[in-house]
Amino acid sequence: MSSPSRAAARNRLLAGLPRLERQRLLARCKQVELRFGDVLCKPGERIRHVFFPTDSFISLITPIDRHDNLEVGLVGDEGVLGISVMLGVGASPLHALVQGSGNAWRVEVAAFLRELKHSPALQRAMNRYLYVTLSHLAQTAACTRFHLVEARLARWLLMTRDRAHANEFGITQEFMAYMLGVRRAGVTRAANALRKRKLIRYTRGRLTILDGRGLEAAACGCYAVIKDTYARVLS
Question: How would you classify the pairing of strands 206-209 and 200-203?
Answer without folding.
Answer: antiparallel
